[in-house]
Amino acid sequence: MSSDQEIFHLVYRSIAEDDLTQKGIDGILRVSHKLNRKAGISGILIKRGKVFLQLLEGPKNKVLTTFRRIHQDPRHHSIKTVIETKSSDRLYSNWDMAYVEDADEHAILEELIPFLDEATSFADNSKEAIMPTLKIFSEKLSKES
């Protein structure tokens, strides 16, 4: 993707339903890889306990269409948009949908933990920290892969 194209980034947080199993998560990832590749979307899904934090990035109309579909998925609830922003670069260009959970060998950056706490309101300026933090995390993942 050329750097002169505007990339839309959307980050949201949600809570997994109690009955969501690893098999269900594997299904989410399988479908995400297929649909994201087709739509030109990249990003990451981070899971800590029952909390998901996801970044979707790509053409704005494709990201918003994907987010509407995700919003209808009954496997999670309490969906809150953390931030919508634009830039000239993707953070996760190497992944249709990277996935990290707290059980992985990847340490979740300490700075991401507040965003993975369902009590966080995002009413303050802390939400502005999410994009630089996700950028650092993408660089860390790139070095490890």
Protein model, in words:
The chain is α+β, with helices and mostly antiparallel strands and 145 residues long. It has one domain (7-144): Alpha-Beta Plaits. Helix content is 31%, strand content 28%. It has three helices and five strands. Strands 4-1-3-2-5 form a five-stranded mixed sheet, with helices on one face. The longest helix has 18 residues, at 22-39. The chain is globular and about 40 Å long. It starts with 6 loop residues before the first strand and ends with a helix. The mean pLDDT is 85.
Oligomer: single chain
The secondary structure category is alpha+beta
Under the CATH scheme, the architecture is 2-Layer Sandwich
Q: In terms of per-residue confidence, which ranges show pLDDT below 50 for 5 or more consecutive residues?
A: none
* Named CATH topology: Alpha-Beta Plaits
Q: What is the domain tally?
A: 1
Give the fraction of residues assigned to helices: 25-40%
Strand proportion: 25-35%
- What's the helix-strand series? EHEEHEEH
Q: How many strands? A: 5
Report how far the terminal alpha carbons are from each other.
21 Å
CATH first level: which class? Alpha Beta
Question: Topology, pairings included?
Answer:
Elements: E1 7-16, H1 22-39, E2 42-48, E3 51-58, H2 60-71, E4 76-87, E5 98-101, H3 130-144
Parallel strand pairs: 2-5
Antiparallel strand pairs: 1-3, 1-4, 2-3
